[in-house]
Each structure stands twice: as C-alpha cells, then as structure tokens.
User: Fold these one by one.
Assistant:
Number 1:
Amino acid sequence: MQSQPGSSGTDHDDGDHPRDDDSAEDDRKHDGDGSAADDPPGHRADDNDDITESSASTTPTWVWVLLGAVALAAIGLLAAFLTRRGGQRGVPSEERRRRLDGAVASWIAQGWALDNQTADSAVLRRGNEVLLVGVDEAGHVSARPLSQ
C-alpha cells in the first residue's frame, strides 16, 4: 500500500475503516430536518419531543388580528368612560348657584359683607380684606383673597 502525499502512512483503504457503506446509509436517514430519523442511535422518543417540534403557534393570523382589535376597543372605551365620568359633565347651574349661596351665607355668618355676586362667584369684604368665592363647573367651592 502506498501513502498519499501529506498523510502519515497509516491510512489504508481496505474497507475496514469506521466509515464504510453502512455509515453512508445512516447519512441518508439523518437529513437534518428534525425528524426522529435524525435522532442518535439508542434515543427514545418521548412526549417532550412533540412539544419542541410543535412550539410554533397554530392560531390563525385573523384570530390575533381580531383579539388585537377587541383589546384596542376595550382600552378606548375605558379611556372614554374615565374621562367623561359617565357622560355627565359638571354640575347644573342651579346646583352651582345653591352651593355658592351656601358658601356666601357661611362667610356672612363669620362677619363678611357681600360686595358683589354673579351666577358663579361672589366678592366679600371685611374691613380692608377682600375675598373671592367661586364655584367651578364640577361644583367645587373655592375662596381666595384678592389683593387691593
């Protein structure tokens, strides 16, 4: 037997080396597609093999699109409900006027005199002090001193 150039001279081609015709047949069975034929010899197939092979979602795309649209609609409705607070904006003008009258009566009882009053505010005076009492659209009463 002759050695190939660059070889150590120990290789010989008598058909008994580890890679013979049977290993070529194994290569045809193991095509790399992840099937059971690619498993090493002695490998037992179990339930976990099926899980990893079918990890891709089988849910149709239109279902995901529909779920996304429903989620966006729910978020939009929630935002609209929270910003409008049930559809009623503010307190009616009669109720605001009643709240202002009650607040003015309370300040008058403490020694303040009514200087001027409109539908949603009043100016009260006590000596050199001037106070503005108002009611906003939500019905909240506020009082703040006015500078002269």
Number 2:
Amino acid sequence: MPVAMQYIYLMRDAVGVRYIGRTAGAAKERVAQHESGARTGRAGPVNDWLRSVGGKFIFGVVEEVHESFATERENFWIRHYRQAGEPILNILPLDTAMPETPCLLCVPDPALTLAERNRQQ
C-alpha cells in the first residue's frame, strides 16, 4: 500500500511569511487554486493579500509529511513563524497537540500514541 503523504507549504512576500497551508495533491496545483480564488474575487485574508501583492509572492514546500501528521505539522509551522514575528495570515493553529521540534519526514508507527511519537522526535 502506498504511503499517503501531504505537503506543508508557505507563501511569502517582501514583508515576510504570510500563509502556511497543506495539500495532499501537487503543491503547485494548490497554489494555483489560491491564485484562482484571488483572481475571481473570492473573499478571505489570503485572497485579499494575493490581490494586494498582484501575484508577486514566493511559494515553497516546507515539509513533506505522512498524512496522519499533517495537521500537527501545519500547526507547528504556523506557530513557528508566528513566534518568529512573521505576519502570518492563518487565523489559528487547528489544534494544540503538536511536537515542539521540527522533523524532516514524519512517518508514524501506527502502534505509537501521539505522545510517544513526540518523545521520539
């Protein structure tokens, strides 16, 4: 069975990191969806920001993670950049159960609890 992976990505401009997101699909397709939302007038902080910078932003993948870690890793990066003083547009981390240290590739052992996985990192 193939391993289900997701990408954690960021979008930034000259001011700093503005958005952290995640996708199970191709990262470039996800950013194209953001751009389309901005072009078609969709409301929201990220779309408003994209319109304000006229499409001049940088997009990059921060981390590739197993899908079972995606929410906690997305939250880790939101919190990381927010604590670093970046002008993040994300409203909130989605939960608070996340490790305090980064990992390069989080592939869980299904027998481990979240607390056990966090101790291993």
Number 3:
Amino acid sequence: MVRTEFVAAIKQVGTLGALETVETVRKVRGLLARQVAQSVAAVPAPAGVKIESRMVPSRHTPGHSVPVRTYTAVSSTVRTPMPCCIYIHGGGFMFGTMDDVHFQCTRFASDLQCTVINVDYRLAPEFPFPVPLEDCYDAGIIAGGGK
C-alpha cells in the first residue's frame, strides 16, 4: 500500500521516463525529497530520544565528511554500554536520504532502548559503488568510537 502523500510524487516520477540520465535521477530524488520532508515534519519524535546530527570524516575519501544522525534512547532503564545499530536507508545506493527513515530511527531507539546511527551516504550514479558502502562503513566505525 502506498501512503497517500507519495501518490502525487509517484505519478510525477512516471512522467519522467526511464532513469537513463543523471539529470532524471536528480529530478526523481528532488520530487521524493520534497514529499518526505513534508511527511517527516508532520510526525513528532517520540519522547525519550536524543537526536544529534554531525559530520564524520571519511577514511576512504580525504577531505570528505559523511553526514550522520544519531538517535539515543534516554531513560532510567537504559543499559551501558548501550547497544547500537547502523541504519542504512534503502534506495539501492541511488535514492534516499537519512530523512526518509527519520521516524523509523526514532522508533527503533525508543522501542529497543539503543543508539541508532543513521547514515546519509553519497549516492550513485555520481558516486559509484563502492563509495556509498564505504561511507556507511566509515560512519559506523568512527561514530561508534573507532578510528
């Protein structure tokens, strides 16, 4: 079932034709991003989750930093050290942003009493494989306290 707020964007995507050019891919990303932004803004974050955005230096691309958002459960029952998961949004390494899964990440942190690291990796075709996967790896290692 498709959420109603995405129906208009999906119809517009269908009029763009095949995803044969970088320009078409960017148009589709823009349409979807606008719909997601409206949807995310309408949903309040669950209580008891601390949300922080930061940049993590890339170990594979000198001078580049990977945007990450951490969602940490804050309550008197939280275990230390706290369990952690890295959430890599869907989209086949070509579509999607960390905002697409903002609500899911807040729910995971709250419901599972853990820290969730949400990675906004670079996308293909501008950054072909393995660049997106390296961004996710770097974010997980460094945001998790490694070097």
